[in-house]
Predict the 3D structure of the following.
Amino acid sequence: MSKIFVDACFRKPTPYTPVWMMRQAGRYLPEYMKVRAQAGNFLNLCHNPELAAEVTIQPLDIVGVDAAILFSDILVIPNEMGMHLEFIKGEGPIFRDPVKTEADIDALLGGKEAADKLTYVYDTIKLLKQKLPEDKALIGFTGAPWTLATYMIEGQGTKTYNICKKMMYSNPELLHKILRKVTDIVKLYMENQIKAGADVVQIFDSWAAAIEPAKYDEFSWKYMVEIAEYLKEKYPHIPVIMFPKGIPAFLDKVYGNFDVFGVDWGTPMALAKEKLGDKYVLQGNMEPCRLYSKEATTKCVEGIQDIMQGEGHIFNLGHGILPDVPVENAIHFVKECQRVSKK
Ligand code: CP3
């Protein structure tokens, strides 16, 4: 049976434009909070394939999206490289032992050794393959090497990225060494997700906007393209989605062999279509805070549909859904996307 989401990634005809939401499995769902409590905490949930599979499926049943995204986190990669990861309530993720020197990066696990430690992710995918309806796609994912490196170097979320940027301009060789090591793991990690059963993969470069446009290719995009092209060569039937957040100034320079470009909410859809719509299917891009108002949601969905006309398009938010969005508004968004695009 063909999956509408995979067909749309390859620009094949579909009965309507499929829709999913970044961070669709998460805290806005009371059902998620219940399972997370059962697991004890967020990381335990990521490490438990049965429970991770359960929360992956929740938004399909509750919100009606057309694809499931694996429940995990981008930071399990540095965690399995040997960095101690904690999630502090109200503060987010923290590594207390950030990478500062060449010796620090050399001391971490790399390549196959690191990728092979992420068995709980592959086990979650295998379970999901048994549980998901045949017509729903399963999206695997990773963080882009740059976005992962920002956490590895800063040790936590940051507003200024000053520690990474100091390295970028004063010791670029060290930053490239970190990016190289992470890229080599991510290639195998994505490959293992595909072998376990992921139908599609997405690379999140959430902190792309921290890099000046003239340096974006050198420190992020080229590594993302290397990963995408490694996968496309071996698994041409698996769509690859690239999501670099906040880089409208780079749209003219986007290149590489992948299938779908994720458009963030700060980039006008019409501009993305003009620059990239012939070459790539576009995913996105409602501003997630519009979900607070059903009227604002409908208006935006209709506007995006007017621009994309159901061709070469996948509906999504322009970044993740926030925890205090009412579930009924998320359901409204999904229904509206399916309604306006029905052929
Ligand atoms: O999209 C999905 O539903 C799949 C699951 C998913 C999570 N994180 C679950 C999660 C995905 C795809 C991610 C990716 C991720 N993680 C990114 C890139 C995507 C993006 O949103 O830009 C980043 C930068 C991270 C790192 C991370 N993980 C942060 C900064 C935080 C704290 C955020 C916060 O709002 O507290 C997390 C934790 C996290 N990852 C949660 C979830 C559901 C919340 C944990 C909880 O239940 O308390």
In short: The chain has a mean pLDDT of 97. The pocket of coproporphyrinogen III is lined by residues 22-27, 36, 42, 69, 71, 73-75, 92-93, 141, 143, 157, 204, 206, 320 (CB under 6 Å). The longest strand covers residues 137-143.
